[in-house]
Design brief:
mainly alpha, two-stranded antiparallel ribbon, 8% strand, disordered C terminus
Length: 259
């Protein structure tokens, strides 16, 4: 665990911020490659990542402050949390960034479905790298107490715990590396625009839904956390996209057979 990687006078470089920056760079690399393969200007990837970086960080912070901070928090403490480096929620960033990218693609005249497919691959690998920052920082994203062999404590974390807990940032990194690997290997086979992104929504929603069972987030409805409820929504949207696209692809075949 290493919350800070460098202290140079008044300048402090946090491991979380460093890994977030690396996550955007890695995501940009694969986004550019996919856009170029699809016949689009790879430089558009830089615009997308910049938009996602600003919108994602703002959305992630706003979601955390609105839904994951204790109610009636004193104003001073609320401001400290708002402008601190810790406390970023993936789904808040995803919603804001996705909305901004859709608008940006529409204004540029680039097919949104093709951008979404490339973005899904980039999001998976970027999220995997970014969660390494949470693990290094020990920022409270860990799970409940555990006696499993790989359980660990975070005594020097930004949000410390001396109890051995589930290292859920590690789980999320491994899960998203697997999602990235699967989407990357099938990116040519899943040729229908939007199909790969639909699969991404299903897989990322399922991964987060399962990991939330060992995280410390409070339950809000039916014994589920807010992240799990959003995960179910993502799974439903992803399944609807996949079923619709597969059904559309099969209709011409069915029509030709009946003729």
């Amino acid at each position: 665990m290493c919350p800070y990687v460098l202290h140079l006078g008044p300048v402090t470089i946090a491991s979380f911020g460093l890994m977030v920056a690396l996550a955007f760079l890695v995501a940009l690399h694969f986004l550019r490659r996919e856009l170029e393969r699809k016949g689009h200007d790879p430089e558009f990837g830089s615009t997308i990542v910049t938009t996602a970086m600003v919108g994602g960080l703002v959305g992630a912070k706003l979601y955390y402050v609105a839904f994951e901070t204790p109610p009636h928090l004193p104003w001073g403490e609320l401001l400290r949390v708002t402008f601190s480096g810790a406390g970023l929620t993936w789904y808040g960033g995803f919603i804001v960034a996705a909305t901004a990218i859709v608008v940006l693609s529409w204004r540029r005249g680039v097919p949104v479905a093709q951008v979404a497919d490339a973005a899904g691959i980039a999001l998976a690998i970027g999220y995997a790298v970014g969660r390494i920052g949470c693990q290094l920082a020990g920022d409270g994203d860990y799970g409940v107490a555990s006696d499993l062999p790989w359980a660990m404590a975070y005594p020097q974390g930004i949000v410390p715990t001396f109890e051995r807990v589930h290292p859920t940032p590690v789980y999320e990194t491994l899960a998203n590396l697997a999602i990235f690997g699967l989407l990357w290997r099938t990116r040519i086979r899943l040729a229908t625009p939007g199909l790969s992104f639909g699969c991404y929504l299903i897989l990322t929603g399922l991964a987060r839904f399962l990991i939330e069972f060992v995280r410390i987030n409070p339950k809000v409805l039916w014994g589920l956390s807010d992240a799990q409820l959003i995960s179910l929504g993502l799974i439903a949207v992803g399944a609807a996209i996949v079923l619709r696209l597969l059904g559309r692809a099969q209709r011409p075949t069915a029509s030709a057979s009946s003729a």
